[in-house]
Amino acid sequence: MPASSTIESRYLDRYLDRELSWLAFNRRVLELAEDDSVPLLERAKFVAIFGSNLDEFFQIRVAGLKDSIAAGVPEATAMLAAVSAEARRQGVRLGAAYGAVEADLARAGLAIVPIDSLAGDDRAYLDEYFETRIFPILTPLAVDPAHPFPYISDLALSFGIVVDRPDGRRVGFARVKVPPNLPRLVGLPGGGRKGRYVYLEDVIGEHLAALFPGGRILSHHIFRVTRDADLDIQEDEADDLLAALEVELLQRRLGRAVRLEVELGTPETIVQLLLEELDLGTDDVYEVDGRLDPSGLWDLWRLDRPDLKDDPWPGVVGRRLAAGDAECQNLFDVVRRKDVLVHHPYESFGATVGTFVQQAAEDPEVLGIKMTLYRTSGDSPIIAALIRAAEEGKQVVALIELKARFDERNNIAWAKALERAGAHVVYGIVGLKTHAKAVLVVRSEGDRLQRYCHLGTGNYNPSTARTYEDVGLLTADAELGAELARLFNGLTGYGVAPRYHRLAVAPEALRSRILELLETQTHPGGRVVMKMNSLVDEAVIDALYAASQAGASIDLVIRGICCLRPGVPDLSENIRVRSIVGRYLEHSRIYAFGEAAMTTEAPSVGADGAAGNGRGAPEAPVAVAGQLLIGSADLMPRNLDRRVEVLTPVDDPAARAQLRRVLQHCLADDTNAWELGPDGEWRRVPTVAGTSAQRLCYEDALERAAFGTADV
Fold first, then answer.
1. Are strands 110-112 and 195-199 parallel, antiparallel or unpaired?
2. Better pLDDT: 696 or 407
3. By percentage, how much of the chain surpasses pLDDT 70?
4. For 9-93, which CATH superfamily applies?
5. pLDDT at residue 618, as a whole number
């Protein structure tokens, strides 16, 4: 049998499984926690991120698999078993990684100490801390015929306690919730840059007897329950989406249990009681050898220990936006003369996109602002600027996606605040989430109205903009402005979705645009480079396979889920897939086709953002052919079929050169990169040159900066 046939017989599946691919991504996060070359508190951060990621996976994806099993989907049971097995394997690695990080922290002067090792003044301090700060808010909940089994809230740490009752009748069971609104790590006296800490649950465990006077604690064990957190809103039946969502959020806390975590050594009698009361099976139990819920490590990461963290890279401001000149008194003057591409967090979000919205709110010549809001921060200066604009009489339209998962409450609050200020607030289109990232500003300039746009890949969230890598285009392009205006009119009114010449908009035509662009490269010498968070859509994967079979060269940079199987002879041998996981969350979506994807010939970027000659003076921009787009959409069915998404072409030569350089850096990375093999396994790229895409992107931003590097 030919070698190619042998290889192909090993990889009969055209598509890798989505759930296992996501777990593989989280495993890459865990590998950073295990990597001794990563600064210690960053390793602690990755341990915490891994745990939070896995929690959300169970809340949404595992809950969905359980729904599929209940609906009789044949393959769902086997899939859940595979997911469970991998999650258990990762749980073992998490315990080992956590233990190694904790030991290294102790050596660095940040010790999380066992409470039974303390005596004297330390014990006296914890006794007082318990009496004054913890005891008043604890509530013991007994379980007996007069006390029904208590509700166990999602992801809350709890004690399961076996008590010898004071009435002498029989041994009883009780539950005590660890208060989530207290610091998880209790600092012992004599802290500072160095310090000793005790876990809150350990302090409570030592003092449980105070909650059961006259009784005797026979044993106590920590457990945690994960519940289904997905929302099920019948939008077409809801008279008021906001009111319906508020009701549904109240129901979320009552979601069915999907996972029970117990500490190693928990008695079988307690486990069985919990399973019975939570309506779970034995396969839903995850025994943890170590600390339940590693999120407490965030408390240490927030400490002022720069010696244990990555070197800071403060966001910079490009020369054109920071300096201005006699002809450019504000950001609108800059953008009207030339498109500006911004790259966060290397370039400050606040001093670029934030300033764009704030100047629009304050400029008396601005008549209207329209904006999509998917996720934003609790103290958002973006929302504050929109409120000021509305109060001053500007026409403000805010399209707030109330259904943005886990941000629903935040978005409801902002929707109400904007409505009180007089803004027009809409919630998008029934049956679709609005995930597009767009701002449209209408400004009076002489005898005409000028449109200014921001179209980007990331949320308008100043907090996450410091840790999420994203790109955005500021432009006064008349055609893009007109098309964006039509998009907003379609989102706020009843109009039929228009045809767009420049923008690619989902769900109507984004998939077809991507497929058309792939078709243009389905030939020998074709070239495609795409960077995204996830690739799941089978039609797009099939088109990539076809392009590869025709001789096109394809590079995919995919942070998370990838269902395409690369490197299979006669199917995908010309496709390479890599993932970059580093100090920043790679979040931008960049799609390059033809000459625009010829990254090895990309011109470098000069200090003013124009194409340049390396580290020297900028040269005249070099025009390039081929399509290059950025935007909000990953290539997943949910993005292409069930969301409003927007990709925008980037035509400005300097902006295109900047994007090509980003892709070039990603393909050269051998520090934070993993590669996907035809067997579906991810392997870390060996470090040879020590190239870091993220460091190179920051160095490029410094070149574009005018002066100073203070984040705004």
1. parallel
2. 696
3. 86
4. Polyphosphate kinase N-terminal domain (1.20.58.310)
5. 33
